[in-house]
């Protein structure tokens, strides 16, 4: 290296140090500008694990990814090309904040398959995934300090959204039939006695993420009635509803309660999460505020993607595709349940000795929820699992309480059966060692 090279390097280093110093100084000044809301926005534990789970060789039972393997990509490409050639001027332009009328009509047909009959496209707001429908609901209804009731456990993305709006998230216990109505009522009364303002019940009644549990038919109306009596809106999140592979279909809470339930649906699990399209079916008297709030964030959802999805669904046997998808998820779920049964035979893990390992048997959706003996924390186990070549999401991510520390979520949706079996084989010794310790 010549002395000129050394000089150059020194100059570069000095410039880099200078930039770093300036950035540190700006960061210090700007820290005071953050809203309280921004301090509440956390990096999701699930996202952390996603970053790890793409490492080559790992079996990821972490992310709830839909299986896209059977999508006819040629038809998607052809549709996208046709949309641009034939409707380019519309597709590449701004649209209305409510979403295109054609997509809203299609959404009503999709919801009808699930038992929401006679919904009007005039009551639908197309959103950037159902995640953004939740965000809009929180924005429209929640002041800091208001209460949002959630199932315990619940979807981590919704927790992050509600917490960003500085609401008090109150988890309510579920059993194998979903949210427990008496506990919901008792919790509401206790919170009211404290003078709290309770705005929403956020529920995933079918194939709850993370537990896979479905709210029993007999409970559904009772839960809406309790909320109505206490003037609480139900925010029903149903991205997995059409992916039932076992048991009897159940109608969404929204079906018979058009004035008391905001219903969120999504194209993410039935088609593609990459198009970022979902929707809210909103009670008529709330609609205007809802879509104005949506417009204030995104102006309008992607016109291009709305046109592609509408045209694609019109050209495609989506009902047949959903039937195929259900079969794929059924097979994967079966592989996971069988692998768990083999890895943790009941006789080897006697519940009477405090060693019982339980898991849910979902009738649809993407997830199995595993319960280890009380006292075992699944968070540290994650590191051991990664060393063993498998990833899961620790239960604590799915609740603001400490009720799920000894649980873990396993997603079967995005993994081939053989890899699922391999993943559980890798996980088994980690769990066995923790139970036997
Ligand atoms: N709700 C639940 C229960 C989910 O599991 C997810 C995604 N994992 C979402 C909403 C977000 O879905 P979208 O892609 O439609 O925003």
Unreliable runs: none
Biggest sheet overview: 8 strands, mixed
Spatial strand order of the main sheet: 2-9-8-7-6-3-4-5
Oligomer: single chain
Shape by Cα distribution: globular
The sequence of SSEs as H and E is HHHEHHEHEHEEHEHEEEHHHEEHEEEH
Distinct compounds present? 4'-deoxy-4'-aminopyridoxal-5'-phosphate
Strand content: 5-15%
- The gyration radius over C-alpha positions equals 24 Å
Distance between the termini: 58 Å
Structural class label: alpha/beta
Count of helical stretches: 14
Let me know the number of strands. Answer: 14
- Mean pLDDT score, rounded? 94
Supply database-style keywords:
single chain; alpha/beta; eight-stranded mixed β-sheet; four-stranded antiparallel β-sheet; 14 helices; 14 strands; 14% strand; binds 4'-deoxy-4'-aminopyridoxal-5'-phosphate
Question: What is the topology?
Answer:
Blueprint: H1 3-31, H2 36-40, H3 45-53, E1 59-60, H4 73-91, H5 101-113, E2 124-127, H6 129-141, E3 147-152, H7 156-164, E4 168-175, E5 178-179, H8 181-193, E6 198-203, H9 217-229, E7 233-237, E8 261-266, E9 278-281, H10 284-298, H11 303-315, H12 318-343, E10 358-359, E11 367-371, H13 378-388, E12 390-391, E13 393-394, E14 407-411, H14 417-436
Parallel strand pairs: 1-12, 3-4, 3-6, 6-7, 7-8
Antiparallel strand pairs: 2-9, 4-5, 8-9, 10-11, 11-14, 13-14
Helix pairs in contact: 4-11, 6-7, 6-10, 12-14, 13-14
The chain binds 4'-deoxy-4'-aminopyridoxal-5'-phosphate.
Residues 64, 129-131, 155, 157, 204, 209, 237, 239, 266, 268, 273, 278 line the site of 4'-deoxy-4'-aminopyridoxal-5'-phosphate (PMP).
